[in-house]
Amino acid sequence: MVRDGEVVNPQSADERVQGVRQFIEMMGAEPRLTATALQTVGTKGWDGFTLAWVNA
Which GO terms describe its molecular function (predicted)? Predict the structure, then answer.
């Protein structure tokens, strides 16, 4: 999900990066959700995931 750190670059022209950014922004704007994005590092390099739950 992190796309080699490009997700934090608002000037990125990569459509995959733009899609991830849009997805995270949409989740953040949804009042029924509480969500976070986490960056991970492993043998494959930088990665990450989002975690969201529906507010009761």
Answer: methyltransferase activity
Residue 28 has a CB neighbour count (10 Å cut-off) of 14
Give the global pTM.
0.75
Residues 1-53: pLDDT tens digits?
A: 556 778 888 899 999 999 999 999 999 999 999 999 988 888 878 788 999 99
Per the structure, the complete domain to which residue 35 belongs is given by: 6-54
State the Cα–Cα distance between residues 55 and 45, nearest whole angstrom: 33
Strands (E), 1-56: 33-42, 45-54
Structural domain count of the chain: 1
Q: Which two tokens stand for residue 40?
A: 């991970």
Q: pLDDT value at position 30?
A: 97
In a domain, 1, yes or no: no
